[in-house]
Amino acid sequence: MRLRPKSGDWVLAGLILLVIFLVPLVFVRQNTGIVTAIVAQDGAEIARIRLNGLADAIHVTYAGQYPGTILAENGRIRFQQAKCPDQICVHTGWISNPGQTAACLPARVLIRLEGTATGDVDVRLR
User: Which H or E run contains 61?
Assistant: First the structure.
């Protein structure tokens, strides 16, 4: 005996496909708010950069036992180079969303992003 799909089966399959393609759109978070990067070394602020609308790249250098350079572009920031032994800060890559941080622990440098972002879902799909 062979079972054949009925019209209700097709409706259910269509709904499942619709959910599969539409649900990820709910989780996309557009970062259109104002994002400010605070760069601090040994707890003292050395730079404050508004990342939204940067026309030119900004380089922030820091000194100490492990000097380095931070690169800020429109909407994002990262450790560009550092003289620290492990290079974890450089390999962290770009950060761009409020609440994210990047740190170079040997140099005691911290990049912290503050600001507002639209959307209330804490997931970002690419």
Answer: strand 58-62
